[in-house]
Write a structure and sequence with these properties.
Structural class: alpha+beta
Oligomer: single chain
Number of strands: 10
Radius of gyration: 27 Å
Shape: flat
Number of helices: 2
Strand order of the largest sheet: 4-5-1-7-8
Helix content: 10-25%
Distance between the termini: 91 Å
């Protein structure tokens, strides 16, 4: 009986490729295992109009002479670049916290994983002026929505003075909330807040949203007491 040379050749090809096939399979298994252990972050969608919250703060030197060494160093740094002290040149680190507290509790802040939740994302986290770039003229932190409209529930906006970082008190912050920005049902909330000590947290607003994404008339409350959200201990 004659041996089929074609069959022998096919068998030899398969056996010679077997180590390579096993290697590729092993790599694929390792890749799957790595993805399972380190899941890919959920991508951030383009900015939506459901909510936009901003907090800006000033440098705390308005209408007064520099009274500390850090004040004087800052003035000298600005003079070298022929810049003047203005809002945005604040070393203070202020954090913004936006939450849905009813029917579920979902909060966004600087320590939120990936800086996003199903409802919100932290677009800008400002740690305060670094004292070097005199043209950096805005201290601002921004939270925006990730849905076309907010689901029904109760919402809270808090502002937290994480650290004054040598700024003299009071540190003044300006909070602005836009719900349904650019739409007929847009609601705008604005408030000025003064901080007098490190670690102070203040509630800017609490409001309710109905099933159609509208802010419920008469539901807005400012400055709620005992409404602490920030996780920091101080």
């Amino acid at each position: 009986m004659r041996r089929n040379n074609n069959d022998d050749s096919t068998f030899n090809d398969v056996t010679s490729d077997l180590p390579f096939i096993l290697f590729v399979v092993t790599l694929l298994m390792l890749a799957v295992a790595m993805l399972w252990m380190n899941p890919v972050a959920v991508p951030v969608e383009p900015q939506d109009n459901s909510i936009r919250v901003e907090v800006e703060w000033d440098y705390g030197l308005t209408e007064r002479e520099p009274t500390s060494a850090s004040d004087q160093r800052r003035i000298e740094a600005l003079e070298r670049e022929e810049e003047t002290l203005r809002p945005g040149h604040s070393r203070a680190d202020i954090d913004l916290w936006v939450c849905q507290i009813e029917p579920t509790r979902e909060c966004i802040g600087y320590n939120t994983p990936n800086r996003q939740t199903p409802l919100f994302k932290l677009d800008t986290d400002d740690l305060g002026w670094n004292g070097r770039d005199a043209k950096d003229d805005r201290n601002v932190e921004i939270v925006t929505g990730r849905r076309t409209e907010l689901p029904a529930g109760t919402y809270v906006v808090n502002v937290h003075l994480y650290s004054p970082r040598s700024e003299q008190m009071p540190v003044v912050a300006y909070v602005k909330v836009l719900v349904n920005e650019g739409r007929p049902n847009q609601v705008t909330l604005e408030r000025r807040i003064e901080f007098t000590h490190r670690g102070e947290e203040q509630n800017a607003f609490m409001f309710e949203v109905d099933s159609e994404g509208n802010v419920v008339a008469g539901s807005v409350v400012e400055g709620m007491d005992s409404m602490c959200i920030a996780p920091c201990r101080y």
